Amino acid sequence: MPSFQSFFERYTESSAPFMHRMLEEYGSAKPFSGMTIAHNVPLTQTTLLKIACLKASGAEVTVTNPSFIKESPVALEVLASEGIQYRPLHNLNGTFDFLLDCGAELIDSCHATQGIVELTRTGALRYEQWQDSKVPVVSVDDTRLKSLETCLGTGEGVYRAICELSQQPVDQKNILIFGFGKVGTGIAYYFSQKTSNITVVDMLPERLSLIESRGYQAVSAELPQQVKSAIKNADIIVTATGIKDLLSHSYEHDWFRGKILANAGAEDEFGFKFSDTDVLAAKKPVNFVLQEPTLMPFLDPIFYAHNLAIEDALNDTTSGFRPLNKADDISIVETWAEYHGWTVEQLNAIF
């Protein structure tokens, strides 16, 4: 029977140094002893390391899974063997000391007495506008370190998935990316290791300038003829705007025939003009068809920060929304870079 320990053996300290350190520290200090925590993070096998650290901290953890992804059957088996309660999202309610949330999906059904920690941009926006908060709401998304996952981790996963699913070499292919936020930036970076032919479409003037400064071709979304030309010249087209149905509302389906198409957003950005068979992974976020959508070295610091933010909320009990404190944010990025052979300057050049 697999256990938390077996997954720490699978993901060794070389790939998950933050989780290994947290497990040792929390197992010794028991910083959250007696606390109750509702944990809503995609329940994959990698997430088991994060939950194991919370168990080691002395907390009573109730695990659920966000609505946008199916939970791992193996992870459910491990939780049962470790005595961790799992409840489907639609059955989870009640009062907890802390809510560790993803997409603000616990905001209406659960109550926190000491604090809330949010993982995503979607959830952060909702919590920031929430008027009823009586506790600290700490955002891990509003940090530098989140780019390790959303820029590098997702970018690498999307690149890996397109290579696997298309079964075609991408060397010197013409790549067209819609959107140059964190995800689009990472996708462009990983494809740039194989081809210099990268074009990015965006609406914002400051992003168009940034695209050009990175050595990519920038096309304004407000110039449809230039976008049409970029589409027709592309071999691989990836969406990363976060806007549902964007391509169906904006462009002709025929322009995309014969291209490799992939969606990197949570929404179906290709939309109603495109069938599931037109787009890799049936229009779902393409990296989520992989057994590991995001590799552990990119998840490790985010898992660490999401748990660590409980300490932030305990140290500063001011109610209302705020990002994780800057000292922890900077420290985690610098430590991650040292662990994995990057420099901070290299990271700054990407995100």
Quick structural summary:
With 351 residues, the chain is an alpha/beta fold.
Written as H for each helix and E for each strand, in order along the chain, the element string is HHEHEHEEEHEHEHEHEHEHEHEHH
Number of DSSP helical runs: 13
The whole-angstrom Rg is 21 Å
Global mean pLDDT:
96
Which strands sit side by side, in order, in the main sheet? 3-2-1-4-5-6-12
- Overall CATH architecture of the largest domain: 3-Layer(aba) Sandwich
Give the N-terminus to C-terminus distance in angstroms: 41 Å
Question: Which runs of at least 5 residues are low in confidence (pLDDT < 50)?
Answer: none
- Describe the sheet with the most strands: 7 strands, parallel
Number of domains: 2
Protein name: NAD(P)-dependent oxidoreductase
InterPro entries: Adenosylhomocyst_ase-like_sf (IPR042172), Adenosylhomocysteinase-like (IPR000043), Ado_hCys_hydrolase_NAD-bd (IPR015878), NAD(P)-bd_dom_sf (IPR036291), Shikm_DH/Glu-tRNA_Rdtase (IPR006151)
Keywords: NAD, NADP, One-carbon metabolism
Cofactor: NAD(+)
Give an overview of the whole structure.
By secondary structure, the protein is an alpha/beta fold. Helix 2 runs parallel beside helix 3 and helix 3 packs parallel to helix 11. It starts with a helix and ends with a helix. Strand 7, helix 7 and strand 8 form a beta-alpha-beta unit. Helices cover 42% and strands 17% of the residues. The chain has a seven-stranded parallel β-sheet with strand order 3-2-1-4-5-6-12. Strands 9-8-7-10-11 form a five-stranded parallel β-sheet, with helices on both faces.
